[in-house]
Structures are given as C-alpha cells and as structure tokens.
Amino acid sequence: MAKPDDNHENDSIYSVDSIQDHFVDEDGCVYFQVKWQGHESWKEWTWEPQTNLEVEGDMLVKEYFESLAKRRKRVRKSAKKQPSPSVATGGTGRGRRNERHRTVPSGRIAKLAWEPPQGSWEHEPFHIDGCGGDSAETLMIYITWLGGHKTRHKMDVLCKKCPQKMLRYLEQYVSMS
C-alpha cells in the first residue's frame, strides 16, 4: 500500500523550456503551446492558458512575442527590398489598392486573418468532424481547429498534410470480421 506522501512525488513541478506557438480562443483567452524541460518529444508539449504561465513563464512569454516581432520585421524588410509590381511592369503607380491593406472592422479581423498552418498538420490540434462530397471523385473532410475555426479540405490534401490522423479517422469506420 502506498503512503499518502508518495502521491506528491508524481505532482512534481514542471519547468517551461520554451513556448512554441499560441492562439486566442473565442472568449479571448490566450493559450500557449509549452515545451517542458526534460520532455523533448512534441507529444509531451501541452497547450496552457496564459494564467498558468504567469509566475515562471512571464519572461518566456515576453521572449516569445519579441521573437515573433523580430521575425515580422525580417519579413517586412525582405518585402521592401523586392520591387513593387507597378515599378517592375512600368506602371504609373495609380492603380487599385492592394486588397490586403483594406480596413476591416475589428470584430471580423480574426475570422478573416486565420488560415490553416503551412506544412504538416500531423501535430496540429484539430478534430475531424466528418466527410462528404459533391461527387464520387471529390470527398471533402470537415475540420474544427483548436480555437473554433472550421475548414473544409479535399481528402487528398489531408492525406498529404496529416496521413496518420486521416488513418486513425478512417479506422473508426473499418471493421475486420
């Protein structure tokens, strides 16, 4: 029989190694993807609300946002170095404004700005809601991402972006009898 004090060994305090990503949910709460010290596998990373990181993670949160700002500055600088389309084509510069720079009401910004992540989705938190299609050739998969964003993708896209998740989803409907 275990002593009552033995349970406290399992309740050890974890130290934050780094912050990998973040998102804001529908209620405006900020969540951070935390990599814990001594836990190198991405499977052991967790999504933590900002309130859980207020004591030890404050400095890491600040460093994380500073690194994001530096990346954005580098992107802006490289974009400035590229010639604008009007200069490259010899235009007068009097054209339609770029659609990206249009003013959008603040309530709609989050919905318009969100896009699925680039690269592999294998380690991204989302739920496959179901599938359907217009014809036998096009099977569409419906996804709800962490944060409540809903997207629809062709099955072949998901087979490339997250083959293991697609396999686990499809295994639910296969029976070996």
TrEMBL record:
Any stretches that span the bilayer, and where are they? none
Q: Which PROSITE patterns does this one have? A: CHROMO_2
Q: Name one GO biological process term.
A: chromatin remodeling
Q: What compartments host this protein? A: Nucleus
Keywords attached to this Swiss-Prot or TrEMBL record, sorted alphabetically, are: Nucleus
Q: Where is this region: Disordered?
A: 73-103
SUPFAM superfamilies hit by this protein:
Chromo domain-like
Entry keyword annotation includes Hydrolase: no
Q: Which residues form the Chromo domain?
A: 14-76
The record's section on InterPro entries has:
Chromo-like_dom_sf (IPR016197), Chromo/chromo_shadow_dom (IPR000953), Chromo_domain (IPR023780), Chromo_shadow_dom (IPR008251), Heterochromatin_chromo-domain (IPR051219)
GO CC, any one term:
nucleus
Question: How is this protein organized at the quaternary level?
Answer: Component of the NuA4 histone acetyltransferase complex.
Identify this protein by name.
Chromo domain-containing protein
* The organism of origin for this protein: Fusarium oxysporum f. sp. cubense
